[in-house]
Design goal:
By secondary structure, the protein is an alpha+beta fold. The chain has three domains: about 1-40, no CATH class; about 55-205, Jelly Rolls (Sandwich), CATH 2.60.120.10; about 210-330, Jelly Rolls, CATH 2.60.120.10. The chain has helices at about 5-10, 15-25, 55-65, 70, 170-175, 185-190, 210-215, 310-320, 325-330, and strands spanning about 50, 75-80, 95-100, 105-110, 115-120, 125-130, 135, 145, 150-155, 160-170, 180-185, 205, 230, 240-245, 255-260, 260-270, 270-275, 280, 285-290, 295-300, 305-310, 325. A hairpin with a 2-residue loop joins strand 17 (about 270-275) and strand 18. The protein binds 2,5-dihydroxybenzoic acid and fe (ii) ion. 2,5-dihydroxybenzoic acid binds near residues 74 and 168.
Length: about 325
């Protein structure tokens, strides 16, 4: 069929006829409500959700028997948001995963444009991430960054399997399209540095011991939306901000909602987070998703530390950051 000409289109006698001809040239009427483009407030496209380290541990230990890092490259379990449909993400812009590496294993080095970070859950001395040829030690509670295009591989010279949480801006990079990935040259990263002792003296490492010192010196704010907290980095990476939150037992934080997407990971303790009316009881190693514009608050049952992983730097830089006052966000 011939594409409609200017005259064919101009001659359309009814809206239906016009729509039919427009469809042939890849145009849709903007007034037709089938193509909604604007709505009054953020949609609930992603759901509040909770994942447990208990379950992830079981699955990772099985995966340890069933697949090695030669085959898998990364032995990771991706946390899919239950409402995300086909889109890959824990929340709209970020994905989280549990990862495990066994004694003697090397998860080969690569680099990619997505920014990544890890929160160590269980690891014995001798576990490291090699970032751009430097071995960074991984200990429980530490946070390690591997920003955009930095080479990274993971090694385990200890006698126990090591477990951590990954957070990446992969869904954002997929949306914006600047995805690049390549394997690293192995000799440069792993073997040549085999004898170098792991260090924590790097701008890519936030050791828990340092973070706790900073928390001790921070202004106490147990009932604020983030409890007493310190930011890691400023922000940690271009697209991801981090803060370590210390929650006092039995003090509920102020309810809060933001256009930023947040993922909370439990570094220590136990408690509960209520996200838009859904209550999730958490323990060490668990993950909670608080997608954009969902009011949420936390309450610890015992001294607790939560790591907040947020796309706030993106929202701020693009002029989309909005926060609702605690009183108004209350549910
Ligand atoms: O450890 O390099 O969970 O590249 C997803 C992609 C971990 C990693 C993930 C990755 C990594
Ligand atoms: Fe990676």
């Amino acid at each position: 069929m011939q594409a409609p000409t200017r005259e064919d289109l101009a001659r359309s006698g009814t809206l239906e006829e016009l729509y039919g001809k427009l469809a042939q040239v890849g145009i849709a009427p903007g007034w037709n409500k089938k193509v909604a483009s604007l709505w009054p407030a953020p949609k609930k496209n992603f759901a509040p959700a909770h994942w447990t380290y208990e379950q992830a541990r079981g699955a990772l230990d099985a995966a340890g028997r069933l697949i090695n890092t030669e085959l898998a490259e990364r032995r990771n379990l991706i946390l899919f948001n239950p409402a995300s449909g086909d889109s890959y993400g824990t929340v709209r812009t970020m994905v989280s995963a549990y990862q495990m590496i066994m004694p003697g294993e090397w998860a080969r080095a690569h680099r990619h444009t997505p920014n990544a970070l890890r929160l160590i859950i269980d690891a014995e001395p001798g576990v490291y991430t090699d970032v751009n040829g430097v071995r960074l030690a991984m200990e429980p509670g530490d946070v390690l960054l591997t920003p955009n295009w930095s080479s990274h591989g993971h090694g385990n010279n200890s006698r126990a399997s090591a477990y951590w949480l990954d957070f990446l801006d992969v869904p954002l990079v997929q949306l914006l399209e600047p995805m690049f990935f390549e394997p690293a040259e192995e000799e440069k990263t792993h073997e040549a540095f085999a004898d170098a002792p792991p260090t924590k003296d790097s701008p890519f490492v936030f050791p828990l011991s340092e973070t706790l010192k900073r928390l001790d010196a921070a202004t106490p704010d147990p009932a604020g939306p983030f409890g007493t907290h310190v930011e890691l980095g400023n922000p940690a990476m271009d697209t991801i901000g981090l803060s370590m939150m210390r929650l006092a037992p039995r003090v509920a934080t102020a309810p809060y909602r933001t256009t930023a997407n947040n993922i909370y990971a439990v570094v220590k303790g136990a408690g509960a987070t209520t996200v838009d009316g859904e209550r999730f009881e958490w323990r060490r190693g668990d993950v909670i998703a608080a997608p954009a514009w969902r009011p949420h608050r936390h309450e610890a049952a015992e001294d607790a530390l939560l790591l907040r992983v947020t796309d706030e730097p993106v929202m701020q830089r693009l002029g989309f950051h909005r926060v609702e006052e605690p009183a108004k966000a209350a549910h």
